[in-house]
Design goal:
single chain, alpha+beta, 7 helices, 44% helix, 18% strand, glycoprotein, glycosyltransferase, transmembrane, Alpha_mannosyltransferase
């Protein structure tokens, strides 16, 4: 479950109610008043609001991966079975759909990361490989050499264009809404 990409049918009143409840749970005074001790942030407030109001919801049944560059050893050798970068989401066919650009802001410069976007990894099985969180950006390791053929992909021009569009939209929304939320986030 990750909150970097969420789709809502806001024409359904019950969805709007759940979003308002989740927004309330994410207010600073609610979080600091004890909510943070019970849940792990915005991902769970979305889920919790829907559960509390008994409104059906779904999560994409696909594994998240990461997008960026191949992992390099201390000697500079690339590992073709591991990709390092921010969290990435795939579409129903396993193609790169979205990259959590917020995480790339915190890990390193967004423009530098986007310029080096070459590969993504999407676990092909229900038992994905290991995550190396000791370095930043984090790295997702495929299951094995054979698995790399099924899990590590070069980013296509179409996928890079889609990521660029969502990156621009994210930047626009972040600047546009930040002034309204800076006291509550």
């Amino acid at each position: 479950m990750d909150a970097s990409l969420m789709l809502f049918d806001k024409s359904r009143p019950e969805i709007v109610h759940a979003l308002l409840a989740a927004t309330h749970f994410n207010l600073r005074e609610v979080r600091e008043g004890g909510m943070d001790k019970q849940i792990m942030g915005d991902k769970e407030t979305y889920w919790f609001a829907h559960e509390l109001l008994r409104i059906p919801y779904k999560f994409a049944p696909y594994h998240a991966g990461t997008a960026g560059v191949l992992q390099k050893s201390a000697a500079g050798k690339e590992n073709p079975n591991a990709v390092c970068g921010p969290l990435a989401h795939m579409d129903e066919t396993g193609k790169l759909l979205h990259v959590n650009s917020r995480s790339s802001w915190y890990n390193h410069a967004l423009d530098d990361w986007f310029a080096s976007l070459e590969f993504y990894i999407t676990p092909a099985t229900s038992l994905p490989g290991n995550i190396d969180a000791q370095q930043q950006p984090w790295c997702v390791l495929g299951n094995d050499e054979e698995g790399a053929k099924k899990e590590v992909f070069a980013v296509s021009e179409a996928e890079k264009a889609l990521v660029a569009k969502t990156k621009a939209l994210n930047a626009h929304l972040r600047l546009g809404w930040q002034k309204y939320l800076e006291n509550d986030l």
